[in-house]
Design a protein that fits this description.
The chain is mainly alpha-helical. The protein contains 2 helices and no strands. Helix 1 crosses helix 2. It holds the Pfam family Arc. Keywords: DNA-binding. GO terms for molecular function: DNA binding.
């Protein structure tokens, strides 16, 4: 299992609520959904190496 970096993240409560509902729609936790969204954005921006996809 790969190690993951932990760090605090401060979000606007309204944004968190949106993310919470969106994550639930996709059967993910908020944490995993945020990671999914960031990974997808990095991939689309060409910043994610093929080995990291």
């Amino acid at each position: 299992m790969s190690k993951k970096k932990s760090f605090p993240l401060r979000l606007d409560p309204e944004l968190y609520e949106i993310l919470q509902k969106w994550a639930a729609d996709d059967f993910r936790s908020v944490n995993s959904h945020i990671e999914f969204l960031l990974r997808d954005a990095a991939k689309k921006a060409g910043r994610l190496k093929k080995s990291q996809e």
